[in-house]
Design goal:
Blueprint: E1 16-20, E2 23-30, E3 36-40, E4 62-66, H1 83-96, E5 101-106, H2 109-119, E6 124-130, H3 140-169, H4 172-193, H5 196-206, H6 213-217, E7 223-228, H7 236-245, E8 249-254, H8 261-264, H9 266-287, H10 292-299, H11 307-319, H12 336-339, H13 343-357, H14 373-397
Parallel strand pairs: 3-4, 3-5, 5-6, 6-7, 7-8
Antiparallel strand pairs: 1-2, 2-4
Helix pairs in contact: 1-2, 3-4, 3-5, 11-13, 11-14
Length: 398
């Protein structure tokens, strides 16, 4: 069924972009002008569905949607790490020439957007988390829910998973309005576009995603929490806590809506996002006349906003303290081969990194990890994130 309840889920193009040796991502672009908005699928929708909920946004913005790996028209790969989704997003934006974008994450994909925004804040104009699964808690309930979904899918296929999800994600009013026809139509569409095995691989990878209040506190870009007041994951108290943790954030509640605000209140969903973008544009315009010194200061900040990158740059300067030819800007992205580190200096740098962050290097680390300080930082975030986060936090509190 192509259009259950009038929802268009047809693939209307064959646009794909190669983001790695064995992965191509399907994508769609709407709108001809304005800021970029990139909507990141959760595991239970596909890119074409967003056309039904972004038409108004596309009149003032350039809207990018895409299928994750193991989803829809994108490549399938059974073996994946959670961080592959973050890397795919970066490669997609690079390949399409999108230097900066607003990110919209919904349910589990909010983790992808959160991790991307923390790692690459310079690429993110703002973060919109719609019914996000990343709450201020330790994630116990989230992981239990995902394990239950995995069991439903593994034991009963996509039909059993749909039955499981239907009662969890929709508000009661929406279920009444859709009735049996809505339930059956959406079930038909869901089972038609989602093969079991690729979805199972993505769900298992999601169990690797990290939870916790400290991760929300690392978000340093303007953030909107767009929540349904009948979403079982969110209530007033934990929404207020998330707002306190994310220093530049706002919360908008959509009434009578569950875990999928875009499906249950598409107009409210689009209006809230556009209001958020307009508010940031007004704020930027108000501070623009006074921003000269700030802009210059940021341009001269060689090491970016990631404290791990900044610490690596500091360690390198300590190791080669007698060098006066290191770049004043962009040190993190400068190839270490271009810097010409002698073997003793490189060894000393690795030792300092172990001592500073409390990690031990694995002898099987690929050589490309050491292309630059930025690639080293990416490796540390991916494989030792808890340790480096604790080390940075400890250093800031001393």
């Amino acid at each position: 069924m192509d259009r259950p309840l009038g929802v268009d889920i047809r693939y209307t193009s064959e646009q794909t972009l190669k983001v790695s040796d064995d992965i191509e991502l399907y994508y769609e672009l709407q709108g001809d002008e304005g800021p970029h908005i990139t909507l990141v699928n959760n595991f239970f929708i596909i890119a074409p569905i967003w056309r039904n909920y972004t038409a108004r946004l596309a009149t003032r913005n350039r809207v990018l949607t895409y299928d994750l790996r193991n989803q829809g028209a994108s490549s399938l790969k059974a073996d994946l790490d959670w961080d592959d989704h973050v890397s795919d997003l970066l490669a997609l934006l690079d390949g399409l020439g999108v230097e900066k974008t607003y990110l919209v994450g919904t349910s589990t994909s909010a983790f992808i957007c959160r991790d991307f925004a923390v790692r690459y804040p310079e690429r993110v104009s703002g973060l919109i988390m719609v019914g996000p699964s990343c709450t201020p808690s330790d994630g116990l309930k989230r992981r239990a829910t995902e394990r239950a979904c995995i069991n439903s899918l593994a034991n009963g296929g996509t039909t059993a998973l749909w039955d499981h999800l239907y009662s969890v994600v929709f508000a009661e009013d929406a279920m009444r309005e859709m009735g049996a026809a809505g339930y059956l139509g959406l079930r038909e569409a869901f089972t038609a576009v989602h093969p079991a095995e690729p979805m199972l691989a993505n769900l298992k990878a999601a169990l690797q995603a990290a939870d916790g209040p400290e991760l929300l506190s690392r978000i340093k870009v303007p953030t909107l929490l767009l929540l349904g007041d009948q979403d079982p994951l969110w209530e007033e108290d934990n929404a207020a806590e998330a707002g306190r943790l994310i220093e530049d954030s706002a919360t908008v509640w959509l009434r009578g809506v569950g875990h999928l605000p875009y499906m249950e209140d598409g107009d409210g969903f689009q209006a809230a996002i556009q209001d958020f973008l307009d508010g940031l544009a007004r704020r930027d315009a108000e501070v623009a006349p006074q921003s000269g010194a700030t802009t210059a200061s940021r341009a001269g900040a060689e090491d970016g906003t990631d404290p791990v990158v900044a610490k690596l740059c500091e360690l390198l300067r300590v190791v080669v303290a007698d060098r006066t030819d290191l770049p004043g800007k962009g040190l993190a992205d400068t190839p270490l081969s271009a810097i010409g580190l002698e073997s003793w200096a490189f060894t000393q740098l690795l030792g300092h990194i172990e001592e500073t962050f409390g990690i031990e290097w694995d002898m099987d680390v690929p050589t490309e990890v050491f292309d630059s300080l930025a690639t080293i930082a990416d490796h540390l975030h991916k494989h030792h994130d808890a340790a480096v986060t604790a080390a940075v936090s400890k250093g800031e509190n001393q």
